[in-house]
Design a protein that fits this description.
Layout lengths: L1 E3 H4 L10 H11 L3 E6 L8 E10 L7 E6 L4 E6 L9 E5 L14 E3 L2 E3 L2 E2 L2 H4 L10 E2 L9 H4 L5 E5 L13 H12 L13 E2 L6 E3 L7 E8 L8 H9 L7 H13 L4 E4 L8 E5 L5 E3 L5 E3 L5 E4 L4 E4 L3 E2 L11 E8 L2 H11 L4 H6 L7 H16 L4 E2 L2 E5 L8 E4 L1 H8 L5 H10 L3 E5 L2 E5 L12 H12 L20 H17 L2 E2 L5 E2 L1 H7 L7 H4 L13 E2 L4 H11 L5 E15 L7 E13 L4 H18 L4 E4 L9 E12 L5 E10 L1 H6 L6 E7 H5 L17 E10 L4 H12 L3 E10 L8 E10 L8 H17 L3 E2 L2
Parallel strand pairs: 12-24, 13-16, 28-31
Antiparallel strand pairs: 1-11, 2-11, 3-4, 3-6, 4-5, 6-9, 6-10, 7-8, 14-22, 14-23, 14-24, 15-22, 16-19, 17-18, 19-20, 20-21, 25-27, 26-27, 29-30, 31-32, 32-36, 33-34, 34-35, 35-36, 37-39, 37-40, 38-39
Helix pairs in contact: 7-10, 12-13, 14-18, 21-22
Length: 807
């Protein structure tokens, strides 16, 4: 949004104020000013001149020799423009002037004649593209006056951040910001010049309101046109300065009024209205309209339209239709000024993909007093610019929407407490009155009447009044005082601690990348992950009342589908993919009976995929990663064959259940590791070996943990032996490890699996397991005999358990 300071000056005296100071004060007290653009920069020394004599250059056919009166004497200038002539008012740049294009002028001889300065073209002044001729000024331009002042270019444009005025419908016109500046700088807000002779007369033109909710008030002014003058230069310059292209007087005046007071209006060619009447109604399903941008648009029954006796002629609050627009031959004008329901306008604009200046204002909820003010302002300006027009003595009006002006209470003592500094009651009254509030004292309180232009979804309570007082008084008056806070350490949350410990173990020690997925599941994820249960999905999932997208209407039951999608994408570029994620899974099954809430489960999910890997080895690698994480949490665990129903991601024959010792000595299941089910790998387009692990963080968080005890670093060397055994498939690795530790006793300090092998000479239904063992005594170095004896005991124990030493 852009504001012209010259335009604002029509409403409030800004003399003596620098544009930078104005921008700063507006930013601090009203709205963010993003940029200040000073118009006419580079034209400071260019003046209005008069060509008092012109003749052909004595030595060049295409050059002219001119004498120019620049207000301080006559100078001789050589000019190459074909349109220069005696008697013209022109833009004269004297010697020493630097033009906007960077050229600094000096006296120089041109074909033997000394030229002092330049008669400028629009291009040389940065005012247009015409480089073939000089800029000819109006005949009444005063000689010697600075050109920027004469052309109205001594202006600055403030660019306002739209987001900072979204809640302030009164600030979408120059009048609203002028009111703010009057309050900020203690200046008087000038009365708005309007036509006070008009009266409301429903008989002036037939208006039918079929949807009074969508349009509570509709006004129409009739004007009989004669020969219209062009848009005056001052108005065209103001419109152009804030980015609006001048079109013609009637349309430009409508735009000018909108940018002036903030109320959009729309001019119709009355003679193109079938039946010479206006109907405000909902569009018929399938109805079409060609809008002013030339696009044919299909309307829905939700759109509010302005219609005549036959068809829709405008989309209410959005854009008019091309069939009824005013043209050069328009003889009768019907000016619309109305109030439209803000949400309706916003939805229509979004459905049709139309963003207009009118939409930007109507969707904010405009003051119900504005439509009449805009009609009177338009009539006043039109009479002054085109005295030959005939304006009806009254304007047609339909609807009854009296502006609302509520009265609120303000407690000065509470305002001082909220603002944090001392502010007198009198200053509070003065600040509120400066922006249009009416205030009267009522004992210890102030009774404040909110003006109509601030009463719609803006100032609705006491805190809003305190904000008004605070911003106008200046938040920089709040003293800089350190807050008095009692520093207390945050409560330790076991689940959060376990989650971070696990993630850090995977990321720092196992080279995983942490991901963060959405908490909802897409239809595609549900279909791919558990196709057999897709039909029952509505009952199994927690549904979202207001989903972000149409294909993600349910909360996720598992973190795994999102991770598998990420793995499939990453495998395109990387051969080794390691991803870990923590979050919540949401189960539709209720907790605490029928009235209970859906269950939430805090989970860690980890996935490893490696191109060309052995699937079983990859699963064991993931098992080692989980072992690192659980070790970091000081959780004792054991891998065993699954005893509970497997989730969809798990391979039925290659899964490891993670069993932990719960409080009280019982065994609890805290997670599952598995090779990815082949069918699931196919659905998610994962062609490489993949292993998945899931840990129940909620269950791990409540497990008893052994106290951390410091052990001295051993100062005696270990004795290392490797052992390869052939174990039946029904014997888990954890069971074999447990047998080895039991046989080795205290001197056995380390048992580490480093290889799994099938095939070759290994009997069917068996696999080879290779372990690295370390033996160490706390008080002496073990001899070979000691180690042989301990190792033999391990071999004997394994043999008794059906696990024999490989030859």
């Amino acid at each position: 949004m852009k504001l012209s300071l010259r335009w604002l000056g029509d409403h409030v005296d800004l003399a003596g104020l620098d544009p930078g100071e104005i921008a700063h004060e507006l930013t601090m007290k009203t709205a963010l000013v993003e940029r200040v653009e000073r118009l006419g920069a580079g034209l400071e020394k260019v003046r209005v001149g008069a060509v008092v004599h012109r003749e052909k250059h004595p030595n060049a056919d295409r050059l002219s020799f001119c004498r120019v009166d620049a207000g301080d004497g006559v100078v001789e200038v050589v000019c190459g423009a074909p349109n220069v002539a005696a008697g013209q008012k022109i833009a004269y740049a004297p010697v020493g002037c630097t033009l906007p294009n960077g050229v600094t002028l000096e006296a120089r001889r041109i074909r033997g004649v000394l030229s002092h300065g330049m008669i400028c073209s629009p291009t040389e002044l940065g005012l247009g593209e015409d480089a073939d001729g000089i800029l000819v000024l109006p005949a009444d331009a005063p000689v010697g006056r600075p050109l920027a002042e004469a052309l109205g270019l001594d202006d600055a444009v403030l660019e306002i951040d739209n987001k900072s005025v979204t809640h302030r419908a009164d600030l979408w016109g120059h009048r609203g910001f002028a009111r703010e500046l009057a309050a900020i700088f203690g200046r008087e807000l000038r009365p708005l010049a309007v036509d006070t002779t008009l009266r409301a007369d429903p008989a002036e033109f037939p208006i039918q309101l079929d949807d009074p909710v969508g349009c509570p008030l509709y006004l129409a002014l009739r004007v009989e046109l004669g020969e219209l003058p062009a848009t005056p230069a001052w108005m065209a310059r103001r419109l152009g300065a804030i980015g609006m292209r001048p079109i013609g007087l009637l349309v430009d005046l409508s735009n000018y009024v909108m940018l002036d007071v903030g109320q959009p209006t729309h001019p119709f060619d009355e003679e193109t209205l079938s039946g010479r009447r206006v109907v405000v109604r909902r569009a018929a399903a399938g109805e079409r309209i060609t809008t002013l941008d030339g696009q044919s648009r299909l309307l829905s029954a939700e759109e509010l339209v302005i219609a005549d006796g036959a068809r829709a002629v405008a989309i209410a609050g959005v854009m008019g239709g091309s069939e009824t627009e005013v043209r050069a031959g328009t003889r009768r004008l019907l000016l619309e000024s109305a109030s439209f329901e803000a949400p309706r306008v916003r939805r229509s604009a979004a459905r049709l993909g139309l963003r207009t200046e009118a939409v930007a204002r109507f969707e904010k909820g405009l003051d119900l007093a504005l439509p009449e003010q805009a009609v009177r302002r338009y009539a006043h300006l039109l009479r002054s610019l085109a005295p030959g027009v005939r304006i009806d003595s009254g304007f047609a009006a339909a609807g009854a929407a009296p502006p609302v002006s509520p009265t609120l209470s303000l407690r000065p003592a509470r305002a001082r407490l909220k603002l944090g500094y001392d502010l007198s009651d009198d200053e509070m009254v003065r600040r509120l009155q400066s922006v249009g509030f009416e205030v009267r004292r009522d004992g210890a309180e102030l009774r404040v009447a909110v003006p109509t232009f601030r009463s719609r979804r803006d100032v609705t309570g006491e805190d809003d009044l305190i904000e008004e007082v605070g911003r106008l008084a200046g938040y920089d008056r709040v003293p800089s005082v350190l807050p008095r806070l009692v520093a207390r350490p945050p409560a330790r949350v076991a689940a959060r601690r376990v989650e971070r410990e696990a993630v850090l173990a995977f990321v720092r020690e196992c080279a995983f990348s942490e991901t963060a997925g959405y908490s909802f599941a897409t239809d595609r994820q549900i279909e791919l992950y558990d196709a057999a249960a897709a039909d029952a999905a509505p009952a199994r999932f927690v549904r979202l009342v207001n989903s972000l997208t149409t294909d993600a209407t349910r909360l996720r039951r598992s973190l795994v589908p999102g991770l598998l999608e990420a793995v499939a994408k990453n495998l395109v570029e990387h051969a080794d993919v390691r991803l870990v994620e923590t979050g919540r899974e949401y189960l539709a099954e209720r907790s605490g009976g029928e009235e209970g809430l859906p269950q939430e489960r805090s989970v860690l999910a980890a996935v490893r995929a490696l191109r060309g890997a052995d699937p079983e080895s990859l699963l064991l690698d993931l098992r080692a990663d989980v072992e690192v994480a659980l070790g970091r949490m000081r959780v004792g665990w054991e891998g065993r064959l699954p005893q509970e129903e497997l989730p969809p991601f798990a391979h039925p024959g290659r899964a490891i259940e993670i069993a932990v010792t719960a409080e009280g000595g019982g065994i609890a299941v805290a997670g599952l590791l598995a090779e990815l089910h082949p069918e699931l790998a196919r659905r998610f387009a994962i062609a490489d070996p993949c292993a998945v692990g899931v840990l129940d963080l909620g269950r791990l968080a409540v497990l008893p943990r052994p106290a951390v005890r410091m052990r001295p670093i051993p100062n005696l060397p270990p004795a290392r032996r490797d052992i390869a055994v052939e174990a039946p498939d029904d014997r888990t690795i954890a069971e074999v490890e447990r047998d080895i530790r039991a046989a080795g006793g205290e001197p056995l300090a380390l048992v580490e699996l480093f290889d799994v092998f099938r095939g070759g000479k290994i009997a069917p239904g068996h696999r080879s397991l290779a372990f690295r063992l370390e033996y160490r005594a706390p008080d002496r170095t073990l001899t070979d005999a000691d180690v042989d004896r301990l190792h033999a005991r391990v071999v004997e124990q394994l043999a008794r358990r059906g696990v024999r030493l490989r030859g």
